[in-house]
Write a structure and sequence with these properties.
By secondary structure, the protein is an alpha/beta fold. Helix content is about 35%, strand content about 20%.
């Protein structure tokens, strides 16, 4: 998801400065990433320090902040949907066929017969009272219409403008046009501002109608007003927010290359000895995990591995699954038992084998 804002009081960021936080809180971390591209005038007018302060909570929750000079083009290409306003980036996104949700507050600032005015009237309007997913569904349904509207205005010769312009320029100069076709450089990959590799995550584990377990995780650094209390808080070893680190139910870390399983067990026990708050600690690798938990009935250690992990499988799902089974009433079956995990986003299923307990 890309949030794009022009500048001024009637811009998207001017009207809804917390929109990025809202998207992060509403959309599962394992299925969505949220980026923001702000007009350079916002950065230059308020200063980088102020803009970064405004975005700090969202950055801790995983927001990708694109620099003011470049990055927005690649983000528009990569985006599955764009939240925007009367700015040109929103228009380019619609022309590329991206679903767009647009704030109409600035409609009176553009000519009524202009292309952007027509797009603002046709696109899904941003309404902070509506659920995020409902806005996205409507925008997806409108994408063909808004894409045709904007695409027809941007260019009557998509993909051919550079060649046509060069031919016209050489003709006007009375010079011979080079035989080689014009070079169209690729859009550079964005270099976002640094953010945390592993945001703290509110995590729930539930069984779907087919009997597989499904994990849903949302960032803990942004509030979720009106949302039910999540099942548990999962943080990484390096969590910088002291409050979240102390509130954590589960602390996890990625194992080092070549690390033996017994080293992971030792790390888990030492971590719980040093921290009063967490109920469990887990160490995970590419396709395996060991978890040590403490409860009123005593301590338990369990190890598991992912059989045939799919490409892109996130092994940090393993600690969440084991923690829920140990402390949330599910219970841990004996070695050799397999749990079925429905992978977020793809809906594919992975088998998780219990190795020891």
């Amino acid at each position: 998801m890309l949030v794009s804002s022009t500048w001024g009081a009637k811009s998207l960021f001017g009207r809804h400065p917390l929109l990025a936080r809202r998207l992060l809180a509403a959309l599962p971390r394992d299925e969505y990433r949220v980026g923001i591209a702000l007009h350079p005038n916002i950065w230059h007018g308020h200063g980088p320090g102020q803009v970064e302060a405004w975005l700090a909570d969202a950055v801790r929750a995983g927001l990708i902040v694109l620099p003011p000079d470049e990055g927005w083009r690649a983000a528009v290409v990569a985006a599955d949907a764009v939240f925007g306003d009367l700015g040109s980036v929103s228009y380019y996104a619609a022309a590329l066929g991206r679903p767009v949700v647009l704030d109409r507050s600035g409609a009176d600032a553009v000519a009524a017969d202009s292309p952007i005015a027509r797009l603002l009237a046709a696109a899904t309007p941003y309404d902070p009272r509506r659920p995020v997913r409902a806005l996205l569904r409507e925008a997806e349904g409108n994408a063909e219409r808004t894409g045709a509207l904007a695409g027809g205005e941007v260019s009557s010769y998509p993909g051919r403008s550079l060649a046509l312009l060069r031919e016209a320029m050489y003709r006007l100069m009375g010079a011979a046009e080079p035989e080689e076709p014009p070079v169209v450089p690729a859009v550079p990959a964005p270099v976002p501002r640094p953010g945390p590799a592993h945001p703290a995550l509110w995590t729930t584990v539930a069984e779907d109608p087919g009997g597989a377990l499904r994990i849903t995780r949302t960032p803990a650094a942004v509030p979720r007003p009106g949302s039910p209390a999540p099942a548990f808080l999962m943080v990484w070893e390096e969590e910088p927010d002291r409050r979240l680190a102390e509130l954590a139910d589960l602390v996890v870390a990625r194992e080092a290359a070549g690390e033996a399983a017994e080293d992971g067990v030792r790390w888990c026990r030492e971590t719980l000895d040093l921290r009063a708050g967490p109920h469990a600690a887990a160490r995970y690798g590419r396709d395996r995990c060991v978890l040590h938990a403490r409860s009123a009935s005593g301590a338990v250690t369990v190890a598991a591995s992912a059989e045939w992990p799919r490409p892109g499988f996130d092994p940090s799902l393993l600690p969440a699954l084991l923690y829920q089974r140990v402390l949330d009433g599910g219970g841990i079956p004996g070695p050799g038992h397999r749990l079925r995990l429905r992978l977020p986003g793809t809906g594919e299923e992975a088998a998780i084998r219990i190795e020891a307990r």
